[in-house]
Amino acid sequence: MQRERMIIATIGATSLLAVLIALISQYFFDMAPCAWCVFQRLIYLTISTVCLVSVLLRPGRLWTSLTLAGVLALCVSGISAAWYQAQVASNSFSCVQSTADQIMTKTGLESSMPWLFGIYASCMDARIKVFGLEYAYWSLILFSLLGLLATFALARLTRSK
What we know:
Layout: H1 2-28, H2 35-57, H3 61-87, H4 99-106, H5 109-112, H6 114-117, E1 129-130, E2 133-134, H7 135-159
Helix pairs in contact: 1-2, 1-7, 2-3, 2-4, 3-7
């Protein structure tokens, strides 16, 4: 069970690092985020929070399993958001009134923490390549890797009953 906790801690730290990289990209490299970008930040921060709480509380097998299942569900949400951004939203002129835009504005996150959740670009404008691959695809890859880690840990945990 110690290995699963280590995996949970790694997933949480990596998710937090992803948000830090996004903020560095925004503030040091002038990559303005769109609604789908900041929505993915919210998902990464949620994953990180779930993992941090789990590691600090040191739950038993059931709660560790629920944590990993929750992280996996959040990763699937992140994969969906990143895919939608790359395939649909980045080809439209505006993200206004998209699901991501509505969530970020109706929750008040965009206005209460604009430094983290401010929407400063349209999805088409936020279509930027890093090392030859669009930023949204990098996020999709990271969500996929985190999901695979969670799946591995969950499978390992259920096999070792």
